[in-house]
Design goal:
The strands form five sheets. The protein has a five-stranded mixed β-sheet with strand order 17-21-20-19-18, with no helix packed on it. It has a domain at 34-160: 5 Propeller (Tachylectin-2, Chain A), CATH 2.115.10. The protein contains two helices and 21 strands. It has helices at residues 2-19, 200-203, and strands at 44-51, 54-60, 74-80, 87-94, 109-117, 124-131, 141-147, 155-160, 214-218, 224-230, 235-241, 248-255, 262-269, 272-278, 289-293, 301-302, 307-308, 319-325, 333-339, 349-358, 361-365. With 374 residues, the protein is mainly beta. Bound molecules: (2R,3S,4R,5S)-2-(hydroxymethyl)piperidine-3,4,5-triol. (2R,3S,4R,5S)-2-(hydroxymethyl)piperidine-3,4,5-triol (DGJ) is lined by residues 45, 111-112, 213, 262-263, 282-283, 319.
Length: 374
């Protein structure tokens, strides 16, 4: 009798451990999205990793109020097998105590974390946009952290401005030698006029290039790329990472010069590379842009706004953060964007929408309630 009760209890415990959340069957873009604890998912500016049959969602943990946009807690992770139901895996990279002097001390700005897995080392590598505490957005640094386990804890390694001392593959004559533009400085908020004619790249040659909004992309051959808004946000850089994914190789290109694009998201389909980006208007949404290329280092061709029926031209009131290929479903990709709430950061919402393809172009349409299977 006793052994029967023990067996039943063990079976029940196993069942509840495996069951996880399972109530959600649809995406409801822009609505509250409860996790397994019935708490709205807190992973903004997110990145996704599919590993051993499970999707992982990494993002900025926001707190209440305007100050909630600062990194007061760290990077939050959730896991899911079906993309509708997410289990809270906790804080995987915690900020350090205030006044600890750490680069990632509480109150810094830590945005758009992305995690990739290195096939050679077996390590999980996280990159993110980092701004030291109290300095606004002037730092324009990229932080990197590493873990043996996908759900962490991640160990912070360093923060850099990428590619110090290296010219891009498509360097221009204005970048070489001395020029008055080398002495330009901006306040971290204002945007330079005629950025395409300024030598911001040359100005930052010694210190390394500015890197704010960012994403990561791993190509079919295992090479990884760091894609970030550089040169005072005016120009996008695509930079190759080293074999261990922990540093930059010095090979990079500059694209969309003077177009002020943020929020890059990259994916590959049928051998072509695609980018989705936003304009540059702080937390306010703006009209999306898209581009295609046969080669990651260009030539990139702009394809315009991929959103169809977006009458207010605000990317359906969101800003891109990721485009997720759905595993086991050929040609199925999901647009993932943030609907920021700068007054109460924790109440930011997520806009997930299906992507369709028309010729060379990808398109996104609004849907209040949808599922991949339909
Ligand atoms: C827009 C960026 O895309 C966000 O990640 C964030 O940096 C805000 N600007 C801050 O205003």
């Amino acid at each position: 009798m006793k052994s029967r009760i023990t067996f039943t209890l063990a079976a029940l415990m196993l069942l509840s451990a495996c069951a996880g959340p399972s109530g959600n069957r649809y995406f409801f873009p822009g609505e509250i999205w409860p996790d397994n604890n019935h708490v709205h998912i807190n992973a903004h500016g997110g990145g996704f990793l599919y590993d051993k049959g499970v999707y992982y969602w990494f993002g900025e943990h926001k707190t209440e109020g305007e100050n909630g946009n600062l990194a007061n807690v760290g990077v939050h992770c959730y896991s899911s097998r079906d993309l509708y139901n997410w289990t809270d895996e906790g804080i995987v990279l915690a900020v350090m105590p205030p006044s600890s002097g750490s680069d990632i001390e509480a109150g810094c700005i830590l945005e758009r974390p992305k995690v990739i897995k290195n096939g050679k080392t077996g390590k999980y590598v996280m990159w993110f946009h980092l701004e030291p505490k109290g300095k606004g957005y002037k730092g324009a640094l990229s932080g990197v952290a590493i873990s043996d386990n996908v759900t962490g804890p991640y160990t912070y390694i360093k923060a850099v401005r990428p590619n110090a001392g290296h010219y891009p593959v498509n360097v221009l004559d204005i970048h070489k030698g001395d020029s008055p533009a080398l002495h330009l400085s901006f306040d971290g908020g204002s945007l330079p006029a005629n950025a395409d004619t300024l030598n911001i790249l040359g100005r930052d040659m010694k210190s390394g290039q500015m890197a704010r909004d960012m994403t990561l992309f791993v190509d079919d051959d295992g090479k990884a790329y760091h894609i970030y808004a550089s040169e005072e946000n005016s120009t996008l850089h695509i930079a190759e990472l080293s074999d261990d994914y922990l540093s930059h190789t010095g090979k990079y290109g500059r694209f969309f010069v003077g177009r002020f694009m943020e929020a890059p998201a990259m994916f590959k389909r049928e051998g072509k590379y695609y980018l989705m980006m936003s304009g540059c208007t702080g937390w306010r949404p703006n009209q999306a842009r898209s581009a295609v290329s046969d080669n990651i280092f260009g030539e990139w061709k702009e394809l315009g706004d991929p959103c169809i029926g977006d009458t207010t031209q605000t990317t359906f009131h969101s800003q891109s953060t990721y485009i997720l290929p759905v595993q086991g479903k050929p040609d199925t990709y999901i647009y993932i964007g943030d609907r920021w709430n700068p007054q109460n950061a924790i109440d930011g919402r997520y806009v997930w929408l299906p992507i369709t393809f028309e010729g060379d172009r990808f398109t996104i349409r609004w849907n209040d309630k949808w599922k991949i299977e339909e």
